[in-house]
Amino acid sequence: MRPVTLIALAALAAGLAQSPIAIEPASAASVLIRNATVHTMAARGVLAGADVLITDGRIAALGDDIQAPEGAEVIDAAGRPVTPGFFGGVGHLGVEEIGLEPSEGDYALSLGEMRPEFDVTLAFNPDSTAIGVNRIGGVTFAVLAPSAEAGSKDRPGGTVIAGQGAVVTLDGTAVPGTNALFVDLGGEANALSGGSRAAQFMLLKQAFMEARSPDEVLMHDERLLTPLGRQALLELAGRPSPFVFDVDRAADIRQAVAFARREKLRAVIAGGAEAWRVAGELAAAGIPVILDPLDNLPSSFDKVGATLENAARLHQAGVTIGFSFRDPQAHNVRKLRQAAGNAVAHGLPQDAALAALTRNPAAIFGVADRVGMLEVGRPADLVLWSGDPLEVTTLAERVFVGGHAVPMRSRQTELRDRYLERLRRGAAR
Amino acid sequence: MRPLICMLGLACALTACATKPEKPDAKPAVAAVTDPYPSTYRAPQGPPILIRSATVLTGTGTRLDAADLLIVDGRISAIGPGLAAPAGAQVIDADGRWMTPGLIDVHSHLGVYPSPGVRAHSDGNEATGPVTANVWAEHSVWPQDPGFAAALAGGITTLQVLPGSANLIGGRSVVLKNVTAVTYQAMKFPDAPQGLKMACGENPKRVYGRREQFPATRMGNVAGYRAQWMEAQEYIRDQALYEKKLADGDEDAKPVKRDARLDTLAGALKGEIIVHQHCYRADEMATVLDMASEFGYRVAAFHHAAEAYKIANLLAERGVCGAMWADWWGFKMESYDGIPENIAFVDAASGGCAIVHSDSEEGIQRLNQEAAKAMTHGARAGLAIPPERAISWVTANAAKALGILERTGTLEPGKMADVVLWNMNPFSVYALADLVLIDGALRYDRTRPPRAPESDFTLGQSAAAAGALP
User: Fold this and answer.
1) Set of chain A residues whose Cβ sits within 8 Å of the Cβ of B311
2) What are the C-alpha distances in Å from B142 to residues B112, B147, B162?
3) Is residue A155 located within the same domain as residue A304?
4) Cα separation of A157 and A113, whole Å?
5) Which of A275, A205, A258 is nearest to A233 (CA)?
6) Smallest Cα–Cα separation from A276: which of B458, B362, B460, B467?
7) Domain ranges in chain B?
8) How confident is the model at residue A17 (pLDDT cuts 50, 70, 90)?
9) What are B131-156's pLDDT values in tens digits?
10) Quick one: average pLDDT of A415-429?
11) Which of these, A231, B92, B121, B245, is most buried using a 10 Å CB contact count?
């Protein structure tokens, strides 16, 4: 794709000013991307000078010298990279329109009760502006997660079980059957567990006991869970769905791993600032870590061992890693590839960084069949980049999500084009 | 996220120094110490340093290839091709690596909101009243914040530490050299002006409005600032009156009662303390500019300025810088219209002054990357910006807003030798600072452990020291 000219932008803006920005199937039945460096993230590895043919929303062919079908749109990549669509991390995409506005955020349950049946995906808004903005930044899937918040004197808080989330794709779909349970541990969660991290495991143990042996439990009024909650916990544990433990301190990670082993859970460590210190154990147990590559300061006593080399060290030890920003967010997850680039600058192989944005999170959260790899027959979920996908000087040029060609516009490009014209005119106010 | 400033050496402004020393019995004016918490920073002395054959972005808009930089007595002595090494000079071969001025962050809370972020370290917002012009951020700075060393590894040589934005008028800022020290005075940029941190919009009205206190609205915010400026004008007038009486030999003249809040505000009105205004929305920035005209003061920079692109020409006309993030948006209503071309727009206006700031202990570690993103989005919008221009967003323009451009912010003879040598083009996600010099002294060397200085806090418990669990 050629650089977009001002004239083209203006024409685009004028033509679209009235229409909401939605994605639709590609206008041409087929799109052929020619001469790309294709990072398949699958068995075929990196294909230099390769063509990608997308027909009816699927990858129809992938290789050398593919003929363009009649009427196909042909894009000359001139050697630029094509990757699977990127992961936007674990956060609030689609449930947080405005950060500081309680009425515009749906991610936290504050009933003061443990409710593993709370499923935040029911609040997912596929029209959130953050989805369109991040989609043209090359993000095609993310994990929507609830966040437990501490109570105040006016309001009960959440509990260590924040609730359920799931994979969302940025064509506006919450993917069925991908629910995961999110559990907050460590010092930051003390306010959710009566003041002690030790109580976090006490409460979790009781919850599982209630779910597994409802008849043996305690007096009714001492139960933690509702009947629906017991059912939800059992179902998630049995499937097995990912149990995502948000935890940083090495000692706490060990406790979480031990708990998951006892309860036979499929554990995922999120945060994991000190995960590198227990990398061998995590690798042996096959437990993946979702980490923030930029998380390098001892912002609490749980993170004294935080380092920019966390990703590299975990990878070196054989731990499967995925990337996410630490603070669950909705608006700027497009920045995650920059964080991945920083991990590379601090020792992580480039291919491992790409995997942490594609194949690995797809596998961890159960959507490896639809995103994260490029193979013939899969739905087209890919990005053509202007250069190195992890570079800060690179932009996404074309994005396909779930077989749909994404118009490269968002509310932000509309604002840009409106005010670019004013800037040119020299208007002051 | 908010600033305040003060010009060093000028803090005295508010008090009448005795004007007639020849009359020993004259009534002294209010006892004014002009610089009560003076900088004790002294650059270490060393031999001359010659850095050879670098790709140099000078900060003045120029790129020099295969240029040498000579440092003598902590100052830049010469820059250009083929410089001769003085006797005893240390010679560093840059071998084509990129060199820039030391990066400057105009908006940091390092030290006042340090790591670890425990309750005991919450020292950035005196949120006990909407106007705390009497507080000085420097009195909260904890020099052991590990964030300083992390920022140094990102090439930061100077930073402005501000009070937070809970208040309409948050207090005075301090400009620091990013050097390891036990006291903040030993970090204080010598003779840098102080700043005044003011805040528009959501934060003050939210903090006080939810307590059912003033201000609870944006109109309340503006009423709040105006009342303060009016009072400060009276303070200045009364002081002038008193000084005149003294000068006229009025033995009974009564000095004006000294007031730390009004000292700061009067300093801002007189231009001795630089005004930094946290403000997101275009309409609110325009209101503040009118207010500045009403009371006759200057705003140096709007910080955050998510909607600066809507009034880029107005900001340029008024000579006000925009200090912005590359791509933050949506985390609050007043940031909802943020776009990644914001910085490029402010830069593109004729005479525009764009600054990339961090307001973040993460962002301050990679201001070069933030600038690169802004440059890239600008180019896609048709606003091509070469690296030699974009570097000014994190160097010269920042120095200008802080009132220290005469002394740092560019690589020009006579300036402080605040220099970063990068392992590659700094506008890359993979770029790392190899060497960081402050006043010609080597403060960071990536190739030689321990690379950066270690704070007392992490000493003995750092990641490197801790290692794998047994």
Assistant:
1) 428-429
2) 6, 11, 13
3) yes
4) 8
5) A205
6) B467
7) 5-44+102-409
8) very low
9) 999 999 999 999 999 999 999 999 99
10) 91
11) B92
Paired tokens of B147: 């964030």
**Region B5-44+102-409: CATH code:** 3.20.20.140
Shared-domain flag, residues A158 and A39: no
pLDDT tens digits, one per residue of A212-256: 987 775 555 678 999 999 999 999 999 999 999 999 999 999 999
pLDDT digits (tens, 9 = 90+) for B49-88: 999 999 999 999 999 999 999 999 999 999 999 999 999 9
**Which residue segment(s) compose the domain that A268 sits in?**
86-369
Question: B463 falls in which pLDDT band (50, 70, 90)?
Answer: low
Min CA distance, B54 vs chain A (Å)?
21
Q: Are residues A60 and A92 in the same domain?
A: no
Work out the mean pLDDT of chain A and round it to a whole number. Answer: 92
Nearest residue on chain A to B317, alpha-carbon basis: A428
pLDDT, tens digit, 9 for 90 and up, residues A354-372? 999 999 999 999 999 999 9
- DSSP label at B385? -
Contact with chain A for residue B128, Cβ under 8 A: no
State residue A199 phi and psi, 5-degree precision: -70, -20
Provide ipTM, 2 decimals: 0.93
Write down the pLDDT at residue A324: 98
Nearest residue to A239 via CA among A315, A180, A169:
A180
Query: What SS3 state is found at B328?
Result: coil
Structure confidence at residue B107 (pLDDT):
98
Q: Peptide bond before A240: cis, by omega within 30 degrees of 0?
A: yes
Question: With contacts defined as CB-CB under 8 Å, which chain A residues touch B466?
Answer: 277, 304-305
Judged by a CB distance cut-off of 8 A, whether residue B150 touches chain A is: yes
Alpha-carbon gap, residue A396 to A399, rounded angstroms:
7
Please state the domain count of chain A.
Answer: 2
- Contact residues, chain A, for B165 at CB < 8 Å: none
* Per-residue pLDDT band at B7 (split at 50, 70, 90): very low
- Say which CATH number the domain at A407 has: 2.30.40.10
Least confident of A332-336, B11-15, B322-326: B11-15
Is A389 inside a domain boundary? no
Distance from C-alpha of B417 to C-alpha of B424, rounded to nearest angstrom? 20
Residue A342, min C-alpha distance to chain B (Å): 6
* Residues A20, A113 share a domain: no
Distance in angstroms (rounded) separating the CA atoms of residues A410 and A226: 42
Chain A hits for B348, CB-CB cut-off 8 Å, are 423
Residues of A in contact with B360 (CB under 8 A): none
Q: Do B380 and A395 touch (CB under 8 A)?
A: yes
Q: Which residue in the set B118, B350, B469 is minimally distant from A250, CB to CB?
A: B469
Q: A339: burial class by Cβ within 10 Å (0-12, 13-18, 19+)?
A: buried
According to DSSP, residue B292 is labeled H
Return the residue of B nearest to A251 by Cα: B469
Chain B residues near residue A294 by CB distance under 8 angstroms = 362, 365
Is B114 part of the contact surface with chain A (CB cutoff 8 Å)? no
> Residue A423 is nearest to which of B329, B349, B464, comparing CB atoms?
B349
pLDDT one-digit tens code per residue, B104-118:
999 999 999 999 999
**What's the pLDDT at B34?**
80
* Minimal C-alpha gap between B304 and chain A (Å): 16
User: Which bin fits B409, alpha (ψ -120 to 50), beta or left (φ > 0)?
Assistant: left
Residues of chain A contacting B457 with CB distance shorter than 8 Å: 298
Q: Are residues A54 and A99 in the same domain?
A: no
Mutation for B interface: A131, A303, A423, most B CBs within 10 A: A423
Residue A65, min C-alpha distance to chain B (Å):
31
Q: How near does any CA of chain B get to the CA of A132, in Å?
A: 13
Do residues A227 and A358 share a domain?
yes
Number of cross-chain residue pairs from A and B with Cβ atoms under 8 Å apart: 159
